[in-house]
Amino acid sequence: MIVAACMLVATSYAQSETNPFMDSEKKEPAPFQAHTAYLGFSTGINNVIGILGPQLDVVLTEKFTLGAGIGLSTWGSKWALNLKFYPKGWYQFYLKGGY
Question: What is the 3-state secondary structure (H, E, C) of the chain?
């Protein structure tokens, strides 16, 4: 119940804040500003990287990122390579294909 109450309060507070991805004066998306790479850890059962493993995503262009990861799963070691395509921009829907 406490978690649900906190989520409701956070959602209410978030509705009064401005979108950090929008230019408040022009009412349009802010210019593309991404880091060159993102490092993270992936967890989960039957996940792409396995139960636990590091993952690296490298920004190639404004519309493409290349990702890779390696980890341990219930079946042994796993690795993955993927390419993400952002047809409508960085903060929108994306398509992902990988091996």
Answer: CHHHHHHHHHHHHHHHCCCCCEECCCCEECCCCCCCEEEEEEECCCCCCCCEEEEEEEECCCCEEEEEEEEEECCEEEEEEEEEECCCCCCCCCEEEEC
